[in-house]
From TrEMBL:
<keyword id="KW-0443">Lipid metabolism</keyword>
<feature type="domain" description="Diphosphomevalonate decarboxylase-like N-terminal">
    <location>
        <begin position="9"/>
        <end position="161"/>
    </location>
</feature>
<dbReference type="InterPro" id="IPR029765">
    <property type="entry name" value="Mev_diP_decarb"/>
</dbReference>
<keyword id="KW-0547">Nucleotide-binding</keyword>
<protein>
    <recommendedName>
        <fullName>diphosphomevalonate decarboxylase</fullName>
        <ecNumber>4.1.1.33</ecNumber>
    </recommendedName>
</protein>
<dbReference type="InterPro" id="IPR036554">
    <property type="entry name" value="GHMP_kinase_C_sf"/>
</dbReference>
<dbReference type="InterPro" id="IPR005935">
    <property type="entry name" value="Mev_decarb"/>
</dbReference>
<feature type="domain" description="Mvd1 C-terminal">
    <location>
        <begin position="174"/>
        <end position="304"/>
    </location>
</feature>
<dbReference type="GO" id="GO:0004163">
    <property type="term" value="F:diphosphomevalonate decarboxylase activity"/>
</dbReference>
<keyword id="KW-0444">Lipid biosynthesis</keyword>
<keyword id="KW-0456">Lyase</keyword>
<dbReference type="InterPro" id="IPR014721">
    <property type="entry name" value="Ribsml_uS5_D2-typ_fold_subgr"/>
</dbReference>
<dbReference type="InterPro" id="IPR041431">
    <property type="entry name" value="Mvd1_C"/>
</dbReference>
<comment type="similarity">
    <text>Belongs to the diphosphomevalonate decarboxylase family.</text>
</comment>
<dbReference type="Pfam" id="PF18376">
    <property type="entry name" value="MDD_C"/>
</dbReference>
<keyword id="KW-0067">ATP-binding</keyword>
<dbReference type="InterPro" id="IPR020568">
    <property type="entry name" value="Ribosomal_Su5_D2-typ_SF"/>
</dbReference>
Length: 324
């Protein structure tokens, strides 16, 4: 008999970024980070352990893919559950446009939830977050809906995410699709290079840990100006540390700065909008519901047709379980 479990997890965008692992095997970060889980971008993953299988299989959006990273992650689940069976893993990325926004955060959060349940483990949200973290650091936060903080912790047991109290701020995020191609350098590789070669990395760690604490306070106070200022600063400080690496590198493209400058101009005109960029050229704009139309109008030239408006999304959850 086999047991198939399907889980859905939504991607998240960090307001206070995670950049750098102090333990690469356990994925323990240098700093805490704070994120917003998004409604419209998510991954559905089905896991089915089957003792008759000779190896794990993996498909993404119906296409067979190498199972290497997935197998390594399933090994963690097998070790925890005592299962020795291999598994079929099928993932579907739900991204409204062909956006190049597929994310390891939603992928590993959905995989952690589906695989642990299919293997018969009943993990607490904290333990699910710790497990998802081993696949991709940002996945630890996608176990939770809305705002989440990933505590840097001091070891495997203490480095996990948890939800932050709901804010009364009507948060919205507008994704500006600058480029849909593959990243030149993966975030994993570039984090290692930043730690090894950027003279700004120690300053980044010091500032960002303090920023995570300030962000928690600003959210609790529903102080959007402070939330936005901290969001932009964490992103730009992360990119400054990246740019200062040797050899130098940036994820920015010319249109990244075009979008960023439009956000600065909006703010100068009284619209509360703040930009954040991850390990790629796309720009995510944090604003409040009453200002979405103004932001979209200001970005229409040259980004019409490349804007996606979304808001806070729910926690990861089991969609379906079937035995046969
Ligand atoms: C810039 O979580 O993808 O999006 O742990 O190596 O899988 P790994 O990295 P990943 O990095 C995310 C980096 C970021 C910032 C963030 O999400 O906090």
């Amino acid at each position: 008999m086999t047991h198939a479990v399907t889980a859905r997890a939504h991607t998240n965008i960090a307001l206070i970024k995670y950049w750098g692992k102090r333990d690469a095997k356990l994925i323990l970060p240098y700093t805490s980070s704070v994120s917003l889980t998004l409604a419209d971008l998510y991954t559905d993953t089905t896991v089915e352990f089957d003792a008759a299988l000779a190896a794990d299989t993996f498909s993404l959006n119906g296409e067979v893919r190498p199972a290497g990273k997935i197998s390594a992650f399933l090994d963690l689940v097998r070790a925890q559950s005592g299962t020795t069976a291999h598994a079929h893993v099928r993932s579907l990325n739900h991204v409204p446009t062909a956006a190049g926004l597929a994310s390891s955060a939603s992928a590993f959060a959905a995989l952690a939830m589906a695989a642990s349940s299919a293997a018969g483990l009943a993990l607490s949200p904290t333990d699910l977050s710790r497990l998802a973290r081993r696949g991709s650091g940002s996945a630890s936060r996608s176990i939770f809906g809305g705002l989440a903080i990933w505590h840097r912790g001091s070891d495997d047991a203490t480095s996990f995410a948890e939800p932050l109290p709901a804010t009364t701020l009507p948060l919205k995020m507008i994704v500006v699709l600058v480029d849909q191609g593959r990243k030149a350098i993966s975030s994993r590789q570039m984090m290692t290079a930043t730690i090894a070669t950027s003279p700004y990395f120690p300053a980044w760690v010091e500032h960002n840990e303090a920023a995570a604490e300030k962000m928690v306070r600003a959210l609790a106070a529903n102080d959007f100006a402070q939330v936005g200022a901290l969001t932009e600063a964490s992103s730009m400080q992360m990119h400054a540390a990246i740019m200062a690496s040797e050899p130098p590198f940036t994820y920015f493209e010319p249109e990244t700065l075009v979008a960023w400058q439009k956000v600065q101009a909006l703010r100068a005109g009284g619209v509360p909008a703040y930009a954040t960029m991850d390990a790629g050229p796309n720009v995510k704009i944090l604003t409040l519901a009453p200002y979405v139309d103004a932001v979209v109008a200001a970005l229409a030239e040259p980004f019409a047709g490349r804007l996606l408006t979304t808001g806070p999304g729910p926690a990861a959850r089991i969609l379906k379980e079937a035995s046969d």
